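Supplementary Note 3. Input sequence used for the single-chain structure prediction.
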Amino acid sequence: MTDSNTEIAALREALRSAETRHAEDSERIRRLEQDLQEVRQEARHSMRNILSVVRSIARRSVASARSIEEYRQYMDGRIGAFARVQSAISRHPGRGVDLGSLVADELVSFGVRLDGQATIEGEAIRLRDKPAGLLGLAFHELVVNSLTFGALAAEGQLHITWRRQAEGPASDLWIQWAENRVAPGALSRQPKRGFGSQVLEEAVAYELAGSTQIDLSEKGLVCSIRLPASCLA
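The predicted structure, written as discrete structure tokens, is reproduced below.
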């Protein structure tokens, strides 16, 4: 092969390599653009969900408030609870929210002690963003209710536990919030049905395909929540 032929062959090989690299680069760019589009769609969807929850909080808070000050307290508490969950989501995007931390953060925000006043027990569970947001609000309402009417208002104890029903992808998650008053029946005033009940009974059922059972006795309130495996991260 002459020098000229060798140069032509080398040039052709270089062109083929350049075309291959160009095709590979184009494919990478296409995939990056697709990923970016998916991230943008997910961000828009997440923002719509956040705004929907905030609107719901505002609407239902004003419906149950008896004064401007009470409305402010409702909004501060509920938006604060929701913001704590969103902060946890942003710290580990795509990984979900740890259930134990979700419960503990809400209790600690009210100054509830985790060394006897309240106990938390359950395996490591991470929740998807939407279930975590709704459960954060539910736990907030349960803490407020307990501090106002329940065990935490009567020097009682609070026990939060959870477990998977069975192994495998189809297993449900069961959460139990159980209060135990030191002096059963000491508090005669019962909580009214409001935002907390709507979150627990309606949102869990319709938005998460779960269920809630609330039992109230002289010993205190027991709230049992079932969530399908689709709620887990």
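The two ends are 63 Å apart (CA to CA). The beta strands are 97-98, 118-121, 126-127, 157-164, 173-180, 211-217, 220-227.
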